[in-house]
UniProtKB/TrEMBL annotation:
This is Xanthine dehydrogenase accessory factor. It holds the Pfam family XdhC_C. InterPro entries: MoCofactor_Util/Proc, XdhC_CoxI, XdhC_Rossmann_dom. It comes from Hylemonella gracilis ATCC 19624. It comes from the Bacteria. Residues 172-314 form the XdhC Rossmann domain. Residues 15-70 form the XdhC- CoxI domain.
Amino acid sequence: MDNLDVRVLRCLRDWRQAGRHALLATVVRTWGSSPRPIGSIMALADDGAVVGSVSGGCIEDDLIARYTGATSATDAPALPAGPTGFVKYGITADEAHRFGLPCGGTLELLLERDPDLTRLQALVEALDAGRLMRRTVRLADGQVMLDEAATPEALRLDDVSLVNTFGPEYRMLLIGAGQLTEYLATMALFNGFAVTVCDPREEYRGGWRVPGAAVTGEMPDDVVRAFRADRRSCVLALTHDPKLDDMALLEALGTEAFYVGAIGSRRNNEARRERLFTHFGQTPDSLARLRGPIGIYIGSKTPSEIAVSVMAEVLAVKNGVTLPRDVDVAQAKQAREKDVGGPGETLPDGWAGRVCGA
């Protein structure tokens, strides 16, 4: 599944390219609770087609009804008539309830009528090329300026302009094409990541069943170098084979990837760190970014549950959320062993190296 913002902009471009009228709505302010964060966007076509969202659905329904000329609430906020304009929802408790906003919630949207096709094409092309772009809208007349941004920025709004930053898709590189990888790739695609799976072992690669993920049989360290991980990328080693995982992790640690980690038990991860210290000249500082055992502790044992725990940790790191120590796999298992006076539950022979890690 594409990054949602990119998908909205692509669809908006296609509508305008086909000569259709369309509206771009951006959440620019919120008060109290809000269903969607500031910067969220939605595109609405003249026939009522919609992509993206600015609320839980009720505001979208009202915008669709009024933009297409259908009936809507008589006391709903008036739509602006010019090329750009603001509209607020949830000013009163009754209105907040009607539009499905949380208690005390109010949000304000900037509406842009018929955004310029040339600028939309340029923006989508830049995003498809992996560039981070800054879009500035002049409020007086809706004119748009584009320039490349060095880092992601929060939405900015003043009396003259709106500035919003759009980034390319987040990317995930998975080393190994086993069952856990299939579950994790599916979740990553659902969450808007572009997924690449690398496994030189034909017996694993041949049974791959997840559409939408790119699959390669090249050696993992070569793939990591070609992947050119940036701050919107993550690399996860899932094979349990040091010959495949270790070199890939070494390459990934030299990049700006926001997340680098490997599956495995606490013992396996300690052994991996020892190998990297002893044979590859790594130091505690150089390995500080290496995560393992990966995932958050939810007592998971099956590949599908472990994928949930790993995806949750990846998303937390992506979103800048510091997880409490009691959900860290190693810390949680150590605490559990201390509480029960011995090691936690054992897994059937042969499973410890395959699914442990969450």
